Amino acid sequence: MMMLVLRIALFCSCASFSVVAFVVPPAAVSSEPCSIATTTTTTTTKLPMSMITDDDDDDDDDQEKFGVGQRIASTQALVVGALAGGLALAVPEFVHETILEPTLDLTVNGGSLAQFEFDNDMGSLMAGLFAIVYRYTIRMDGARDQLKQGVVGAFTLTRALGRVTVPASCSSVPLYCGEPLGYLDWNMLTQIGVNVVESGIMFAATAAAMDVCMNKGWIKKFPG
Fold first, then answer.
1. Rounded CA gap, 163 and 154, in Å?
2. Which residues, 6 or more positions from 31, have their beta carbon under 8 angstroms from its beta carbon?
């Protein structure tokens, strides 16, 4: 009888321990710190095809605007501008240096063939550089006539005003040269007028030559 009771008690204790072990989590039973293993997953993000296409288009645009073809076109513009501008300037510059200078006493040197040659050479260089700028202004998307005239006028005034020689009779700080404007006398105004006319002829002829070359397709317009 005693042995039966002991067996029953032992069985009940084992059963109760099994129930506790099954119901209570291991973390609640154990006092030891437990380590948690974490798993890092790497995800690969795929870019949309539109973004890849846009990047390719940007590369193509940069190549089209700043590639070797644009350098060749700029060189062509330089040559055309120098030739057209130099030829257009030759006659008015010759009249300026051989007739107007000695007749009107515009400058101290009185004009000479050497000055004519130098001015015509420098004018050709200016016209070539102007042609490059003009080509960048007249893009493939078109340009208004006001913009074309503005570029020609800006270069014309820059050259004309830069060629004015101040007479020796002018006083400085502040500059005073006499009638009619004080800052500008009749001699300086005449110089400005003569230089505006010959510079306008040179740059207008250069612009016309560039328009013909670009319309014919001989020189590519700059991309818009």
1. 15
2. none
